[in-house]
């Protein structure tokens, strides 16, 4: 996530409205990431305690979840979005640290946290943003 945050810190405010795909602009991508940071943190805690699969492992679509987050954060300005991304990324990191990376990796139910990788998710969106700016 640090690479994306570093890039966004240098991105002028007027560029945050640039479309990255048919539905989202850069602000929407950041809102989407904030929503997933919050959800991942919550799900780590719930899954650790219950042992139940996270809802998103059985979901056929994430469209409604993503739409709720992009709409919820739509009116924030770039500085507010960037602050939210940093805050939620930090909170997610602390939740992971609280349980311990090795402890989480030892439980197969947390494969989603490491296999696909939260970092990979943000890098994919960074490439998407950079492509839209060219």
Textual characterization of the structure:
With 134 residues, the chain is mainly alpha-helical. Helix content is 72%, strand content 0%. The chain has helices at 2-10, 26-50, 63-73, 78-99, 101-106, 111-133. Helix 2 (26-50) packs across helix 3 (63-73) and helix 2 runs parallel beside helix 4. The longest helix has 25 residues, at 26-50. The mean pLDDT is 94.
Q: Give the low-pLDDT segments.
A: none
Q: Measured on Cα atoms, how large is the radius of gyration?
A: 15 Å
Instruction: Please tally the β strands and state the result.
Output: 0
Beta-strand portion reads under 5%
Secondary-structure content class: mainly alpha
Assign an overall shape.
globular
Count of runs of 4 or more consecutive helical residues: 6
SSE sequence, one letter per element: HHHHHH
User: N- to C-terminal separation?
Assistant: 21 Å
**How confident is the prediction overall: mean pLDDT?**
94
Please bin the fraction of helical residues: over 70%
- Main β-sheet description: none
């Amino acid at each position: 996530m640090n690479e994306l945050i570093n890039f966004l810190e240098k991105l002028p405010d007027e560029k945050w409205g640039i479309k990255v795909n048919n539905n989202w602009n850069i602000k929407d991508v950041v809102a989407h990431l904030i929503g997933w940071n919050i959800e991942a943190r919550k799900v780590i805690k719930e899954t650790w305690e219950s042992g139940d699969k996270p809802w998103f492992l059985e979901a056929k679509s994430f469209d409604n979840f993503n739409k709720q987050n992009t709409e919820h954060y739509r009116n924030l300005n770039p500085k507010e979005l960037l602050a939210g991304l940093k805050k939620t990324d930090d909170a997610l990191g602390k939740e992971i640290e609280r349980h311990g990376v090795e402890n989480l990796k030892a439980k197969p139910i947390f494969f989603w946290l490491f296999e696909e990788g939260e970092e990979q998710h943000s890098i994919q969106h960074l490439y998407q943003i950079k492509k839209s700016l060219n």
